[in-house]
Amino acid sequence: xxxxxxxxxxxxxxxxxxxxxxxxxxIEIQNSNIGRVDPGYFAQVSGNNKLKxxxxxxxEGPVIVDxxxxxxxxxxxxxLMVWYSLSVNVGDLAEMExxxxxxxxxxxxxxxxxxxxxxxxxxxSLEIKDSNLNQLPWEAIAKWVDAYDSRSLKINEx
Length: 158
Known about the structure:
Elements: E1 2-4, E2 10-12, E3 26-37, H1 41-46, E4 53-60, E5 64-65, E6 79-83, E7 87-89, E8 101-105, E9 109-110, H2 113-119, E10 125-129, H3 138-147, E11 152-156
Parallel strand pairs: 1-3, 2-3, 3-4, 4-6, 5-7, 6-8, 7-9, 8-10, 10-11
């Protein structure tokens, strides 16, 4: 499901969407402005613990990608991409048990180095670029990369 050009202040809420609980595995929102997202919205639209991929590309607004937005996806969401977009609370991503790929590009990252340590063990791929990070847990990241040959890490321009 791809959603584009939502007007400023759009509110993502469950109403009479024809695709409610439609077993959607990927949602991409791009070039939009979101003012509010109901807690668990994506789980309600896709079906509880069905959505595997969420892409937010060039999405503006005051909302934060956090545990409220991702409620109901704890055991399914394995790929989260936030590009030139909303703020992301990295500490809340620790609740995403299935998350294996995380891309944060040109976004405001909310959290501490300790929050990254919590999510690293499950990740196979981590990309952080052009974000507002001053500190990362470099020792933990080095151990994470060293642990498996299949890990992918891209960090630059922070």
